[in-house]
Amino acid sequence: MIKNNYIVTTFILVCSLSATNLNDFVGSWEGSESLSSPTMSYQGRETYVSFRHNANLDTNLIYTSNSDFIYNGYLGWAAHYFTHSKAENQVVFGRRFTTPLGILGSQEIVYNILENDSERMVLEFISEDGLTIHTLNLSLAVLSNDIDIYPQEASLEPNYPNPFNPSTSIPVKISHKSSARLSIYNSNGKFIKNIQNGLLEPGQYIFKWNGTNDQNVSVSAGTYIYKFSHGSNTLVRKMILLK
After folding, report:
1. Band of the pLDDT at 142, cuts 50, 70, 90?
2. Domains of the chain
């Protein structure tokens, strides 16, 4: 019995020491999100969250995501902030919004950490009335400590998987702070959708495209072009969507 208690205690201690520092969250995370609310519900939707260092403050991270629940894509030019409380075993997403007066504000969404190690985490938000539950189940896709956090030049990497169905990841590197746009076109050059359009800090990102147009309607199978414009540079690659 004493030996078993020692093993359990050691396991709990190891888990509590994992990813306890803010820097441990830096990197690109991929996985799924689930939402249950009075107005909308979905399960297992593919999502990503990319965390990077804040050049102005060391008490939080800046993040981007394709999850509308934690990230306002219309305000992608305004930094969204992320903090971690070791004592409360919680993380906080600072989601940006504009008020009717045009003032920029931030809504703090608090998540309990259900699981957490160096490469995987499960986060859960429950509203005060208990009617809204949002869960993030994420795994680390890019370990930023092993890569160049601040690239010397911009680059558009090959998407993966390719061919793909139903979604693909598009890695991008930013060399300096500037306006950046990642757009999808069909093989005839017709615009399909903007994946990113706004100001980005230097660093590495992984953007996801789920095979839909700007109306969130699934597009047909075929060859598509993704174009990345960063400052005065424009980079282009091709990808294939299967059905």
Report:
1. low
2. 2-143 (2.40.128), 155-241 (2.60.40.1930)
